[in-house]
Amino acid sequence: MFYELTTLSSHILKLPQVIKNAEAYLHRSEISGHWLGAWTSENGPLGSLRMLRGFNDTHELARERERALHHSNPFGATTSDCRIEMESYAGFSFLPPVEPGSFGKYYEFRTYWLRPGGLEPTIEAWKAAMPERSKRSPLTVNMYALDGAPRITHIWPWQSLDERIAIRAKSYADGVWPPKGGPDQFFDATSTIWIPTENSPLR
Question: Which residue intervals define the domain NIPSNAP in the entry (predicted)?
């Protein structure tokens, strides 16, 4: 499965209108892809809306990106006076495609910027570690970027931030996480917390 991660950034007081305009765009009949989730930022840069869409192949993803680039009001960003960023990703092949559902009140987005040649070792490390790690808590997706700097972005749902801290600490203590050799492949990382919007397919 292939994914597009779109982030709209505006003034925090404009977020309700940003969400409304973006959802209206996603429901237009000519727009392709599967809308999977929408979240607002809880820490880091505030006033941001992030949306995840899934695509069956790179051709569908490229066509939709081309449509957005030539659209006069993509995601309602012109009306909302937003800055827009669109990123293309491919899901790790051994992971199942993202399916909508209720999984957590908070979603953590983690991005790792990879060293040159670091993608394949990262994928293999995750492939070996996930069978045991997935018993502790669910993973929404891990995916590698098809554009921009080499990087991976993974999304984890949590019922609470206390749950997140406890499960991560226990996984580290048990030697289940991080994936063995995985941290050797990246040189920078970020983690931000996002909250699903009222109509987000992923909750």
Answer: 3-71, 107-200
